[in-house]
Write a structure and sequence with these properties.
mainly alpha, Arc Repressor Mutant, subunit A, two-stranded antiparallel sheet, elongated
Length: 193
Amino acid sequence: MCGDDMSYFLLASAIVLGGVSVACYVMLRRAFRAYRSAEESVRGLAVGIFGRLRRVEEAVEGIPCGGGVEEVLERVKRVEGEVKRLSEALSRFNAKIAEFEETLRSSSKAAVRAPARPVEAGGLTPTEARILRLLASEGPMTASQLGERVGRSREHVSRLLKKLFEAGLIERDVSEIPYRYSIRDEGRELVGS
């Protein structure tokens, strides 16, 4: 590459990296706002539920052991009303929790892909090529599983996976920890699988 081509490449790389950084920031900000909103909703519902539960306890304790039947029936009706309102509040609480869990699941389900960058011919080490062949033949694996298979430490394999990910040869599923890595079509083409 000549000087102008290298400058253009570096500028393009900086622009892409800046765009990816902004996109990640925006996604994190949205997730944080959704978390705060859900936290406030859950806190408000919990306070309401505990207040209603306290009123039910007070109403039950206030039922006279002796006395008029009408008074006892009136108190029982009030307790039934409070229990019904408590049940409705619990239903809203459960719905809010389910909504929040779904938001978290949907925001972390998508596999993360780095932008594809060409790998120079012969740019793979034998271990990197072996990792790609393992992912192509056996499917998604964690860094620890790959480390056991190639006879390297998890840390060493993690560094290689990062390089392969940044080169656009593999993708990682971040919906669970530990992350699982799988091969992309570009990686398959490179190792001939």
